[in-house]
Amino acid sequence: MTETVLPCGPEAAGQARRLVAQACTAAQLPPDACDSALLCTSELVTNAIVHGRSDVRLWVRTDPGWIRIEVGDDNSRHPHLQPADDGALDGRGLFIVDLLTTRWGVRDDSIGKVVWFELRADASAG
User: Assign residue 65 a region: left if phi > 0, alpha if psi is -120 to 50, beta otherwise?
Assistant: First the structure.
């Protein structure tokens, strides 16, 4: 498992994507699964910055064909999956995570919360 703290700023999503890309390679995930993991990581890290307004805690766990990403922030308010709105400029993050991952969820942490997802290369998302 890899654990890191990313700064609360626009560079955090890129740093997280680089770490997850390395983990995808180590887990031997196919390119489409890796692309999904990278997009979902960007969504969760961006949400943590915008709504958590704190440094971002990132955990990455892998096994062959499987990856789990956990993103923590200091805001204890849980996000909720919203219906897709084609006219909205934002609010699609968890919809994307729900669509592309095997499963996802939220748990309370000692400070704030952690939003996580798992992606298996051998199982269809959703």
Answer: left
pTM of the entire predicted model: 0.91
Strand boundaries in the chain, DSSP class E: 2-6, 56-63, 66-73, 103-108, 113-120
CB 6 within 8 A of CB 58: yes
Q: How many CA atoms lie within 13 A of 98 on its CB side?
A: 12
Q: Which tens digit of pLDDT belongs to each residue from 5-50?
A: 999 998 999 999 999 999 999 999 999 999 999 999 999 999 999 9
User: CA-CA distance, 91 to 64, in Å (whole number)?
Assistant: 32
Q: 46-74: buried (b, 16+ CB within 10 Å) or exposed (e) per residue? A: bbbbeebebbbbbebbbeeebbbbbbbbb
